[in-house]
Every structure is written in structure tokens, then in C-alpha cells.
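Sequence decides. Our protein:
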Amino acid sequence: MIRPATPDDVPTIYRLVHELADYERAPDEVKATEDDFRNALFGPEPKTFAHVAVHEGEVVGFALWFLSFSTWLGRHGIYLEDLFVSPDVRGNGYGKQLLAELARIAKERGYGRVEWSVLNWNTPAIGFYKSLGARPQDEWTVYRLTP
């Protein structure tokens, strides 16, 4: 089952974010706290959203996203910040269902796209995304400024 996250899901999302950081070989990079997630997702004016995958009553995956905007399309889109499913339940369709829910939301709201980034070495994720028909945007390079 896929559903919007609730405040009660924050501790589990936080734990899954740490599992994702371990998987991405960056366990010390997570600086956020549970309160940061609670405020971002459920504060007075949330700008970040999450959906969770539930298996036998337990949250086993999440998609955390926010709105983007395309000047060329003149419409919002969804930017998927993180998609993660616990390794012990991978292969059961939860990742696909989470992405399908974001695609459904984008279509329902008239958004122009759903997009995300993936680490170049993450061949399992790249294979998964390609199996869904997603296309890499190889002509773009991500840049970042930090304080």
C-alpha cells in the first residue's frame, strides 16, 4: 500500500534516510534531525512532501519530493529527492508503486514532469528506472553551491 506520510511516520522515514545514506556510502552526511523532517513535511507551510510504502502494517519505503518549475513548459513538476525501499522487501513493487503515485499526482495536477538524480555507480537503481521507461538526461551536469 502507498499512502501520504503522516507525522507518526517521521521516525521511520528518518531511519530509512540513514539506511539510504549507508547504501550511498555517505553515512556521515546526514545532518538532518527528526524535527527537521517533521517541520519540513508537516510545518505550517510545508514545501516538501512524502509518500510511504507499507508492507504488513510497517513502513518499508518512502518517496520524498517537492515542486520544481520548468520555464520552458510553464508548469510545475515533481522533483523526487529520495526514493528508498528497505532491501529486505525490494522486488515486491514498492519502488514502482511509489513512482506511479508521483506520476499520478503529476498528471492529476497538470505538472509537466517527474525527475530525479541518481548516482552514476548505482547500477541497480539505474536499471530499475530504465525498466520503467525513465530516460537519463546525460547532457546535463548537476552543480551545487553550499554555504
Notes: The domain at 2-131 is CATH 3.40.630.30 (Aminopeptidase).
